[in-house]
Specification:
There is one protein chain. By secondary structure, the chain is of the alpha+beta class. The protein has three domains: 35 residues, no CATH class; 101 residues, SH3 type barrels, CATH 2.30.30.40; 123 residues, L,D-transpeptidase catalytic domain-like (Beta Barrel), CATH 2.40.440.10. The protein contains five helices and 19 strands. It has an eight-stranded mixed beta sheet with strand order 12-11-10-19-14-15-16-18, covered by helices on one side. It has a five-stranded antiparallel beta sheet with strand order 8-7-6-1-9, with no helix packed on it. A hairpin with a 6-residue loop joins strand 2 and strand 3. This is L,D-transpeptidase family protein. Pathway: Cell wall biogenesis; peptidoglycan biosynthesis.
């Protein structure tokens, strides 16, 4: 210490004998000023100075890339391919099923890619670039380092995790929100309500499934009762496939028109969403495949277009 360099033991003993304790205390005070470069703080005890926001302090080195990106296990060649039929089991539940925030990014496979149950988890199925010759675009719902989560087609409220590679992304501007209690469908673009329509929805036992899904693709109307307007097939399927009529087994939930508007505002369908023919034509002309669709009981406040 600096104090030891300035005063020897002999000198310290002489000072104690000649001047006594008061001078020793004064010397100690002077040494304290020399060591600290200023007066001793008064008041509250001194502590660490926080110059940034409070929060945990990182003490470990940054993870290596191998630690940051969970490796994708090789996918067996005999995994099923997700098609129009119900998707294989085992995929995780969509944690944001009722989230009303628009999904603004779509993912389109460019080759057959493996779908996993978690980042670095188990491969459960393959996703192909098309389903029944319709190009597949799935909304992106989450990102992790090296992994992307999408809404799974041919399933309700399920997601799949995909490693990097074998797909491209597209921007999504639109969203469709369906409210079961007021029987209302609202089309949004860039987060703003464009137009609302009264709709018919699923009857008891075949209710229109709640949660997030998406526009899978469009198909011509198979019968005259659909009003001669193309149908949007959604990624969702009936919650209880066995409850629908035998002729509709294996079908997806659809968004379509009807030959008349007599049942608008009622629960009369097999789970599908019916709106006017003019409304269906407008959506067909504006809304691309991959657009997110969310079905809720009721919005906290009616949209401006209601």
């Amino acid at each position: 210490m600096l104090f030891d360099r300035l005063i020897s033991r002999w000198t310290l003993g002489w000072l104690l004998a000649a001047l006594g304790v008061p001078l020793l205390l004064l010397a100690a005070l002077l040494v304290g000023r020399t060591l600290t470069g200023g007066p001793t703080p008064t008041g509250a005890a001194a502590g660490p100075v926080v110059t940034g926001p409070a929060g945990p302090v990182a003490t470990d080195a940054a993870p290596t890339p191998a630690e940051s990106v969970p490796a994708a296990a090789p996918a067996p060649d005999d995994l099923p391919v997700v098609d129009y039929e119900p998707a294989p089991r085992g995929f995780p539940t969509d944690p944001g099923s009722g989230d009303l925030r628009p999904l603004t990014e779509g993912l389109a496979p460019t080759r057959q890619i493996a779908a996993y149950d978690a980042p670095g988890g188990r491969p459960l199925a393959f996703l192909a670039p098309t389903i029944r010759d319709v190009k597949l675009t799935m909304p992106v719902v989450d990102h992790r380092v090296g992994w992307t989560a999408v809404l799974l087609p041919s399933a309700n409220r399920r997601i799949a995790w995909l490693p990097a590679g074998g797909w491209t992304t597209v921007a999504l501007r639109d969203q469709i929100v369906v409210e079961r209690r007021p029987h209302r469908l609202t089309w949004y673009r860039d987060g703003r309500a464009v137009k609302s329509w009264e709709v018919s929805l699923g009857r008891p036992g075949q209710f229109t499934p709640l949660g997030r899904t998406f526009v899978l693709g469009r198909t011509p109307p198979p019968q005259a009762v659909y009003g001669g307007v193309d149908i949007f097939a959604l990624g969702a399927i009936p919650d209880d496939p066995g409850a629908v009529p035998a002729g509709l087994r294996g079908a997806h939930i659809g968004l379509h028109s009807w030959h008349n508007d007599d049942t608008l505002g009622q629960n009369v369908t097999n789970g599908c969403i019916r709106l006017t023919r003019s409304g269906q034509r407008q959506l067909l002309g504006e809304v691309p495949a991959g657009t997110g669709v969310v079905v809720v009981d009721e919005l906290p406040a009616p949209p401006a277009t209601a």
